[in-house]
Design goal:
The protein is of the alpha/beta class. Helix content is 43%, strand content 15%. The strands form three sheets. Strands 1, 2, 3, 6, 11, 12 and 13 form a seven-stranded mixed sheet that branches. A four-stranded mixed sheet has the order 8-9-7-10. Strands 4-5 form a two-stranded antiparallel ribbon. Helix 19 packs antiparallel against helix 20.
Amino acid sequence: MQRRNLLRAGALLLSAGVLSACGVFGGTTGGTASSGSSSGSGPVSLEFWTINLKEGYTPYIEGAIHTYEQQHSGVKIKWVDIPDFEQTQSKLLAAISGGATPDVVNMTPFILPKFASTNTIYSIDELAPDVQSIGAEYTPGLWDAGVIGGKAYAIPFYGSVSALIYNAELFRKAGLDPDKPPANWDEVFAAARKIHEKTGASGFVQTLDDFDDAGNPSDILAGQAGVPLLSPDGKKAAFATPEAVAHLEQYATGVKEGWIDRTSVNGAVMDGAKVLAQGKTGMVFLGPWILRWLKDNTDEETFKQFKVAEHPKGAGGAANGFLQQFAIPKASKNPKQALDFARYFSSTVLELAKQAPVIPGLASVGKDPYFQSSPETKVLVDQEVKFYWPKHPAVAELFASLRTRFQAALLGQKTPKAALDEAAGDWDRILSGTQ
């Protein structure tokens, strides 16, 4: 259950809500075209790709499409849902080579740089003269995730943000106030030590994850330790600093002494969630969507002990975020209308958020009172969010190296300094193209 498949998790966690196909969606947010073809030459057909939304979210998607078609005479939307993240990239490449390219594609910042670097998707400024005003409509950290080389290539759709999920009973047993969870990483480390000392449970789990685009190592460095991942020109690694070494030393010490759960080293997201569910750790740092899973996989009394709070403040200044985006392929026959539809669809996320706890990309949607209705939804919009990952076509290779070096440090096989220095050397070779 990976962040790139956030709504797949939602589909498993929630029974599908029933949405009316009409009357639940607003209009566009000031798109580039109001009706029909952007050139005025006749009917327009747009092919729209999403990632893994068909199961559980079909009423939402079809309802939004129906409303747009009603508001835009002569425009017809063909919806295609791609079952998983990996297939999106391969299918889009095949579509481009075969000349049957979709017009609006749901992407992630993990694959967006690959298409931006090959000039196969539009930058927004090629389609709209007011790109700055468009960008101002969106949550800054989510909009910035689509800015590569100073140009915006994507419209934010929805996202997630890390939160602190913790066991209040373990806090009480450790002599900690469950109404005052750790607010920064010094407090996290101190609380983790105390939980382990007083209860025998580990203090927290922060998994490095087992998939190529795992973002936690970058969160540990950039979000928590506050060090830049890349040099200003993007050509060199910049994270092998004394601050990063000191922070990674805390992790290595914690794993060795047991106050950081060993699941952190080789476990995946759901492994950490299972350790929390079993009462074996005090804290995890996941999106609030995990509360739905915890409710379904623990008894009522156990679930009552799980609380949610804002992600502890790191030196990076914002909580780690991940998101889904919309991009417009260069082969689209109606790219301006496609951009209009992408902007419209981003305005419909409130209906999606009521089924799965996600952040709307559009800032105005995040101000809806719904998001203040529970702690679970409040943490989505009350935190500053930032996408810390390097926006580079080789991000999978970069993270594979970083994860391997981190694991060696946490297992005591390398010093944290050696691990970071070696990872920086790997990154420099990858970034220079001399792997």
